[in-house]
Every structure is written in structure tokens, then in C-alpha cells.
Amino acid sequence: MTILALGLALAVLAGLTVMQLLLIGGRPVGEYAWGGQHRVATPRLRQAAVVAVVLYAGFALLLLSRAGVLHGGDTTAIAAATWVLFAYCASSIALNAISRSRRERIVQTPVSMLLALGVLVIAINGPGA
């Protein structure tokens, strides 16, 4: 179950990374992110997208560790960090659901739900499950 959840979470993170890279590149997908107020991301939102890509990479490494693919997944620090990530993902469901952007609500709310679900399963089961 953990490996399936890991695949789901990594696929969602990869998709989110692609979207952020499109924003960084000036593509008109801004209605799906960052509140959806700008069709093309402003320079400040592009900087935020760079930070998001780095965070997604960190999230992926954390999940790979907690799932037992990388070492350290059974440590208290990794377990706690995975629960913090779950809380972050769960809060993003609500934030996307109340976005002013209809497109962001329709697309990102279910994406956030999928990511939160994957992280939850990994947090609960840990390595070797």
C-alpha cells in the first residue's frame, strides 16, 4: 500500500512541478495557481514558483525516505516531518477550495486531496509496509 501511495504522491508532485516550471517560463497557466489572479505569473510569483519546485523536491525525498526507498524512514524525525507534510497538504485542500479562481478550485482542490491522501498513507504505514 505504501508503494502505491508513494507512486501517487510522486506523480502529483511531478505534475505540480511541471505546472510551476510553466509558470516560471511565463506560460499562461496562472489561473491554476497562486490564487489565480494573474494569467501569466508576475516576477514575484515566478520566484515563489522556484521555491515551490525546490520544496517539491524536498517533499519527494522525505516521502521516499519514509516509504523505505531511501534510508532513515523509520527515524522519529522523518516520521514527524511526514506528519507535518500531511498537515501542510491537508491545509492546501481548504486553501485551494476557497480560491477566487474557479480554475484553481476545480483543478487544484482534487490534486491537493490526492497528494494529502498519498502522504497520509505513507505517514501511517512508514517503511516496509
From TrEMBL:
Taxonomic source organism: Prauserella sediminis
This protein's name: Integral membrane protein
Residues annotated as transmembrane: 6-24, 45-65, 77-98, 110-128
Assigned keywords, A-Z: Membrane, Transmembrane, Transmembrane helix
